[in-house]
Amino acid sequence: MPELPEMENYRRLLIPLICQKQISDVEITRTKSINVDPEVFREQLVGTYIVSIERRAKHLLFHLSTDHVLVLHLMLGGWIFFGNEEQKPDRTTQVVIHFGTMKLYFIGLRLGYLHLFTRSQVPKLLAKLGPEPSEPSLTPTDFQRLIKSRKSNLKVTLVDQSFLSGIGNCYSDEICFYAGILPARKANALSLEEERRLYEAIHSVLNEATRYGGYMESPLFVGDQLTGQFDSMCRVYDREGEPCFRCGSKIIKDEISSKKCFYCSNCQS
């Protein structure tokens, strides 16, 4: 599932590709991927422009030149591609937005969605999300206060979008490894030093992953050399049985609170 780095990478790459370019047509092949009548959806988009793209947690918000916003959540298996008909991957699309001959393809939206809202509706929609990890207002002191209030283990805490927004299965494991803490540890039982390491790990891992285009390997467009470059840099995620980069012990795959988890039992404690 795309997480904060993947969605932020999409946002940055899409801005010069689609912003301020007129939407010429819309195709919808799966009505469950949208939240309004297909004809209404199409009428509200065709002829408008995307004036800006915002990311909030794992969502992308496409602000239209009208009073409407498209809210995208890719969920499990979703991804996007920008190109012409000849470049399009051989995959089923659920929604396609046309910009002349170039198109933005939404692929794998079986659980995900592309919903249309007015600007005034969006804050309520996202109200339950926790703070962004990179918010300057989220100081180490604020982070310590937040984590002390959590009784669950670190794996559950980090992927809880009401705690911090944007972290999922991959980066929760990478963050715990970076901090040297086992994901099964209780969040409110960490020492002050461990809380400090965890705070630094959240920023370091997410910033690095964003800088290298996240871990999802499917390119956004033909010639895209950035998207997915972090995949080979993951220290523990999806590396079961491989040697740990730090100590050489085998990476363990486990299930913690019904969630897939990867870690090193030797150098995480």
From TrEMBL:
Keywords: DNA damage, DNA repair, DNA-binding, Glycosidase, Hydrolase, Lyase, Metal-binding, Multifunctional enzyme, Zinc, Zinc-finger. Transmembrane segments: none annotated. It catalyses: Hydrolysis of DNA containing ring-opened 7-methylguanine residues, releasing 2,6-diamino-4-hydroxy-5-(N-methyl)formamidopyrimidine. InterPro entries: FPG_cat (IPR012319), FPG_N (IPR035937), H2TH_FPG (IPR015886), Ribosomal_uS13-like_H2TH (IPR010979), Znf_DNA_glyclase/AP_lyase (IPR000214). Residues 235-269 form the FPG-type domain. Residues 2-106 form the Formamidopyrimidine-DNA glycosylase catalytic domain. Its EC number is 3.2.2.23, 4.2.99.18. It comes from the Bacteria. It holds the Pfam family H2TH. GO terms for molecular function: class I DNA-(apurinic or apyrimidinic site) endonuclease activity; oxidized purine nucleobase lesion DNA N-glycosylase activity. PANTHER family: FORMAMIDOPYRIMIDINE-DNA GLYCOSYLASE. Belongs to the FPG family. This is Formamidopyrimidine-DNA glycosylase.
